[in-house]
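Continuing the series of single-chain predictions for the mutant panel. This is the parent chain; the variants come on the following pages.
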Amino acid sequence: MARETIILTRQEVAQQVSLEDIIPAIENCLAQFEKGEDLLPPKCIVDLPGGVAACLTGYTKSTHMFSMKIGQERKGNVAQGLPTIFSTMNLYDPDTGELLLIVESVLATMYRTAAAAAVASKYLARQEATVLAVLGAGQLGRQCLRALSTVRPFKKIRLFDVRKSQAEQVAQELVSDVVVPIEVTNPEKACREADVICTATNSTDPIVKSEWVKVGTHLSCMGADLPNKIECEKELLPRCRLFADNVEHCLQRGETSQAVESGVLEENCYSGSLGQVILGQVVGRSTNDEITLFDGVGLGVQDTTVAKSIYDQATTKGLGLRVAFS
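Parent structure:
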């Protein structure tokens, strides 16, 4: 008899799944991916009448699991009082084909993206970094703030969102999660005083100006995952040592894609991948004066890793609805 499938809602993930447990899992995933034993098919994007749909899949040898995630964005849903993004992720046993997990994956995706931002800051920020700036107070910005706070002992945290009330709400809600007071401010002040900047927006116009970024800063840029998205001024990028979760994917749809297309950057602009830095194959930060930038577009193997972590936690804690499909 096939194993039962665990079904988890977003509320169950938010209340019961540990983000801190996902961070080391993503760190290991990024490193193992560089060994060339995982499977990462191209991202499938479908333009539909009402919006866009995307499918990401991935197999990781370290988890020996396969996942498939389908997400759909409908900006017109706002007028109907509906979420603009719907997404679910399935986790499969690659040997038997059994469906082990179905999880609402908007929050799960935020967890894995935030975890990658935290891992990048762990390896690329200066050891004495004490001031964090997070630009974007939506679902992703909230999780990035939580995740980065676990890997660095920040003394000051500054938060910006174009909706000031949203930033103030997040700052208030995270009081119990983050021991450092969170100051809501404008993007210029947040960036100028920051040692680490994390961008977590859907912006199609730059929100970080080059003149705001001081030497020695690290940036984790997590919002640009399509060619039309950009969070940093093109002029900033040549000042940075650039690292990617996957160089090929980032050149196609990451933070550098527009700069490469316009000739501001060469195609060989990346120093390497974050996984290579973790493995010691590529030097990360080499001086305190360098500006480092991690470009994270998100990979299907990261989805597989976070799905496996959620599945393990659900199994251990008895979470979710169990369904026997066959």
